[in-house]
Design brief:
Elements (H helix, E strand, L loop, with lengths): L24 H4 L18 E6 L5 E7 L5 E7 L7 E6 L4 E4 L7 E6 L5 E6 L19 E2 L5 E6 L6 E2 L7 E6 L5 E6 L6 E6 L6 E2 L5 E8 L5 E8 L3 H12 L2 E2 L5 E6 L6 E2 L7 E6 L5 E6 L10 E6 L6 E2 L7 E6 L5 E6 L10 E7 L8
Antiparallel strand pairs: 1-26, 2-3, 3-4, 4-5, 6-7, 7-9, 8-17, 9-10, 11-12, 12-13, 13-14, 15-16, 16-18, 18-19, 20-21, 21-22, 22-23, 24-25, 25-26
Length: 366
């Protein structure tokens, strides 16, 4: 069975439970200017000048501000045992806590103007980290009903809920046009995609097939949405899905990628490989999608980055790391790529953030 790294939200569950000892925050604040570039691994012809942005612990889902001078990301730093949200200044890789420091958070993103952030959090239900999912029912993700989406000022102050509803609300991202937010919600009894204005008004349901729809991102022109999904098409799998969802759980063994118009119309599937495909993000040409997948690992444990056309053609492997690469995001000009990886880890289970030059047309191998 394919196994995703353990975390909730966009990629739920990527946590090795044995790796609970993270480095302290002060040890992680290594200025970017002092970090030596890492060599791309053999086969990684699209990457160059790889710079490591975080150093130790579990850091993931790094997403750029609109002006591309900052990142918002989630990380677990001692003494906490679940994710909080941080904002990093890319000029020197310094960062600060911007969530409440209570509950579990996921899925941070910037709003237009870069003075407001959004993220999902369980802090209103409890200051404690919610319990990890029960794996006696197999490999499952928890979709905590206590997750709601919040906005806050850049320093973390002024936090307030955004379009809160009973049940799971998370996985929110913002259109590069700055006009809409797409997110996953269980408000109507299934895990579907919705969109809303940036002030939380005009909530619209975009998907309605039984099964999980989530991890959505807009194209750079705001016209399309790419997301991961798996829909139950037979009575037995539908019954299993409904039973697990009643316990706020889902099985992530298979997730395929879909593209649709921003209003939910014109949906089409662009992968059909039976793997766990997730974290899709549009290239600035709006014709290609980069994503993470375990499609090349028969055991389903290793995730690398791949690129595919929005027509489902031209699958290309981008990274060749033997552990984990995921959560890619291009800069607006397509010249750099931010991603999370286990590469260069000092301890087993570390996940760090990296930024690399993107080589669109690599020289042919000699």
């Amino acid at each position: 069975m394919p196994v995703l790294p353990l975390r909730t939200g966009r990629y739920a569950a990527l946590r090795h439970l044995l790796v609970m000892i993270a480095l302290t925050l002060s040890s992680l604040e290594t200025p970017l200017a002092t970090a030596q570039p890492l060599a791309a691994l053999p086969g990684e012809v699209h990457l160059a000048n790889i710079r490591q942005l975080t150093f130790g612990g579990e850091n993931a889902e790094g997403y750029l501000s609109f002006d591309e001078t900052r990142l918002i990301f989630q990380a677990t730093h001692a003494p906490r045992t679940c994710d909080a949200q941080y904002v990093m200044n890319l000029a020197d890789a310094s960062f600060s806590l911007v969530s409440t420091g209570t509950g579990r958070t996921t899925c941070g993103y910037f709003l237009p103007g870069d003075t407001t952030i959004l993220y999902a959090s369980t802090h209103a239900a409890s200051a404690e980290c919610p319990p990890v999912p029960d794996h006696s029912q197999g490999y499952v993700w928890a979709v905590y009903p206590s997750y709601d989406i919040y906005t806050a000022r850049l320093d973390g102050s002024g936090i307030k809920p955004l379009a809160a509803a009973p049940g799971y609300d998370a996985e929110a991202t913002v259109s590069p046009r700055g006009d809409r937010i797409v997110f996953t919600s269980a408000r109507d009894g299934d895990l579907d995609l919705y969109s809303m204005n940036t002030d939380g008004s005009d909530v619209r349901r975009l998907t309605n097939e039984l099964g999980y729809d989530g991890g959505a991102f807009y194209s750079w022109d705001g016209a399309h949405i790419v997301y991961r999904a798996w829909h139950q098409t037979d009575s037995a799998s539908a019954a299993t899905y409904k039973r697990l969802l009643a316990s706020n759980l889902v099985k992530p063994s298979r997730m395929e990628l879909f593209v649709m118009n921003a209003d939910g119309s014109g949906r089409r599937q662009i992968t059909n490989n039976g793997a766990a495909n997730f974290a899709p993000f549009f290239h600035p040409d709006n014709k290609h999608v980069i994503f993470a997948s375990n499609v090349s690992d028969p055991r389903g444990r290793n995730f690398d980055l791949y690129m595919i056309g929005v027509d489902g053609q031209g699958l290309t492997r981008i990274t060749f790391n033997d552990t984990f690469d995921g959560f890619p995001m291009f800069t607006r000009d397509g010249k750099k790529l931010v991603f999370a990886s286990n590469r260069n880890a000092k301890r087993q289970g570390e996940t760090n953030l990296f930024i690399a030059d993107w080589i669109a047309d690599p020289a042919p191998a000699k």
